[in-house]
Design a protein that fits this description.
four-stranded antiparallel β-sheet; 8 helices; membrane; scavenger receptor activity; CD36_fam; alpha+beta
């Protein structure tokens, strides 16, 4: 009888240990691991997680392809455009946060600076000094905006303004280096002779247009993103 009770107790003990092991495996260990992971990514000052969050250790790969119109003069005479895809132009995008302040409710406020550097190795034989012919989007955009608001009857006035303001206004195409078109800017407008027009321009500039000198406006696709920030950001620590 005692032997039978011993076997029964041993069996029950083994079953309890088995159930406890299963419960710990299914519920206990994941909770412990999750807690440790959370502790590892808490954005505490001077921690590794905080430093990785503050400044990305590995750059984001930014790849650009462009279309080069190889026969712009023929197009202006009525021919169909011949378009050549060029690229890729690889850039390393670095992000770094600064002026970081810990606020109430576990909130962090900060600014984030974004900077792009050309990666020659990833770009192969492509160079930021490659010259391409592109549509003068500033010129076309201005003409289409006037047409939409005032109709084709305003084209006579627009033609005079275009010839006065726009650089190389005799064509809808411009030639520029990839570096200028993407980042540094291509001068497309000079309205320094008309203060009224310049004032109107300043109030309606898109991000892609900047005033590089009084009355002189440059266009670039991404220049406004480089070495800049988008203003103050606020995030809960768990969302960072």
């Amino acid at each position: 009888m005692k032997h039978r009770n011993l076997i029964l107790c041993t069996g029950l003990s083994g079953f309890v240990v088995f159930v406890a092991g299963v419960a710990l495996g299914w519920f206990g260990f994941p909770v412990i691991i999750l807690r440790e992971v959370r502790n590892g990514v808490v954005l505490a000052n001077d921690s590794e997680a905080f430093e990785r969050w503050r400044k990305l250790p590995i750059p984001i790969q930014y790849k650009v392809y462009l279309f080069n119109v190889t026969n712009p003069d023929d197009v202006m005479q009525g021919a169909n455009p011949i378009v050549q895809e060029v690229g890729p132009y690889h850039y390393d995008e670095y992000r770094e946060k600064y002026d970081i302040v810990s606020e109430e409710d576990d909130t962090l406020s900060y600014y984030e600076n974004t900077t792009f550097f050309f990666n020659q190795e990833m770009s192969g034989n492509n160079s930021p000094d490659d010259v391409i012919n592109f549509l003068n989007v500033a010129l076309l955009g201005s003409v289409l905006t006037v047409q939409k608001q005032y109709g084709t009857s305003a084209f006579g006035m627009v033609s005079t303004v275009v010839e006065t303001m726009f650089i190389e206004s005799d064509s809808v195409f411009r030639a520029a280096t990839v570096r200028s078109l993407l980042w540094e800017g291509v001068t497309v407008i000079n309205c320094s002779s008309s203060k009224f027009i310049c004032d109107m321009m300043r109030n309606q500039l898109p991000k892609t247009m900047v005033e590089s000198a009084p009355g002189v406006f440059d266009f670039s696709f991404f220049g406004y993103k480089n070495s800049t920030n988008n203003g103050k950001i606020q995030n809960k620590q768990r969302d960072c």
